[in-house]
Input
Amino acid sequence: MKKKGEVTITVMLIVALVASMGFMSAMGTSEDSPEEISGEIYASVQVVTMEQAIVYRADSNVTGEVGTRADYNVDGGWLRIDEGAGNVCTGNAQGAQLVGVPAGGATCKIAVDYRYIDTIDITGGYAIFRLTAPDSGVDEDRIADRWGFDDSCTGELERTFTVYPNNRYVFTIYCERGDDSFTDSASIYT
Output
């Protein structure tokens, strides 16, 4: 004769087995072809189709909000001024590929991180960081280098403009400190 505890454990194991079989059946096997898989990704409560995921993640530098194809955020790279380094001004512009840009255009925001490392090697004047967007719009930060103070800081340059499909947009990043400067360009393809 079985005890009540053994029956409960047996029932729980059967329920777990049936549930896992149902889950495995729903997920398919590695032998399933892409046409046989439903193409939906289940993450928490939100359901996103594979087509939407590709649209918003066409490039590792690009993000977009699910539910709208009209907004693209591009990580445009970085700039650094380090007064104590051999090359005082350095940086890297990063391009991107935007997929699914609607015929009527979309908003694209480029963001570039910057860092200023102040030392006593150079005093007075300004540390200059600049982003020039494809529409010729400019975002610039000037940090005054005050004698006797540590003016080190970090920040972000941003510029928003409109993109249309099947185009190439070039943007430029720039920094300057004393006699040293750095410039780089990258392209955004739609």
Remarks:
- The helical segments are 4-27, 50-56.
